Prior knowledge:
Elements: E1 11-15, H1 20-29, E2 35-40, H2 43-53, E3 58-61, H3 67-81, E4 86-89, H4 105-133, E5 136-141, H5 154-174, E6 179-186, H6 192-199, H7 205-211, H8 220-231, E7 242-245, H9 262-268
Parallel strand pairs: 1-2, 1-4, 2-3, 4-5, 5-6, 6-7
Helix pairs in contact: 1-8, 3-4, 4-5
Amino acid sequence: MNTDQPDTARVAVVTGAGDGIGLATAQRLARDFEHVVIADVRPAAAFARAAELGQRHLGVACDVTNESDVVGLFDAVLQRFGRLDVLVNNAGIGEQSVMTLEQTVEGFDRILAVHLRGTFLASREAARHFVAQQSGAIVNLGSIAGLAGHPGRNAYGAAKAGIVAMTEAMASEWARDGIRVNAVAPGYVMTDLVRDLIARGALNPSDIEDRTPMARFARPEEIAEAIAFLASPSASYITGVTLPVDGGWQAFGAPPARLGRVADKRESH
Ligand SMILES: NC(=O)c1ccc[n+]([C@@H]2O[C@H](COP(=O)([O-])OP(=O)(O)OC[C@H]3O[C@@H](n4cnc5c(N)ncnc54)[C@H](O)[C@@H]3O)[C@@H](O)[C@H]2O)c1
């Protein structure tokens, strides 16, 4: 840590920031916050990514499904920086990618644990501090899969819909304590989570491009910008919302053919 920094320097915690959207968010928040904490279930990734970000930042090993890990995360943050301003609940895992009839109870429970229990636990621990200081902001990671039905993504969709509900409940509960709680609902973002779905044959990239009005996947940095906005004072009167960041996916309700095939368009140019 750079000991020249004042104790009042703002602090943001991003869970699952060892890779993908979380890492892009940590990198983006490092422009607005004096200290960014990269928490990840993979300790080596957490430490390495924090070191790359700079010595003012911190990497913490934390499995968001484990209560004592999460309590320990916030203890470590407060001990090190004496302050906490923003929490981004980003840690997540992909679906088993099987239809509901083939889903196992273990797989179903694991998805709900990482997304729902993780978001609940980290929010609860952060809010203990936010309520005491009467300020703070939380940004959760929803998904378009939590806003409408996606066959083969039963548990994932339920978890993300639960995160939307939790966002609204926590926003209402803590609004008078100066705490804002919002979510982003990304469309398809090219990260390892999605690359893994493609590699397993669970996702066809050109189907996604054809169904997305903007005809492409998002870059992690584009989701990070929306998260940074919701976490910032620029969003001072926004709480309880889930903001789609999806290239128009959620707005579009017609058959994909109405948009034209992306491959045909590319060939005609
Ligand atoms: N990629 C997409 O298209 C997409 C779309 C909508 C929502 N999301 C959501 O965005 C978030 C990030 O997804 P991503 O695509 O960047 O995934 P990713 O797989 O690239 O990165 C996820 C990170 O979370 C960490 N992680 C996993 N389980 C954890 C746990 N129990 N505790 C702490 N850390 C854990 C991983 O180690 C990894 O570093 C997830 O909540 C995901 O559901 C992603």
